[in-house]
Amino acid sequence: MFGVSSGRGGLGWFIYERKNLLDIPDVFAGLLTVIIIGLAIENPVFPKIEEKTVRRWGIAGSTIIQETIEETAMLQQTSHCMREANLIDGRWVRADSGATIDVTNPATGQKIGTVPKSGRLETRRAIEAAEKAFQTFSKTTALERSKLLRKLHDALMDNQEALAYLLTLEQGKSLAEA
Question: Does 158 lie in the same domain as 109?
Answer without folding.
Answer: yes
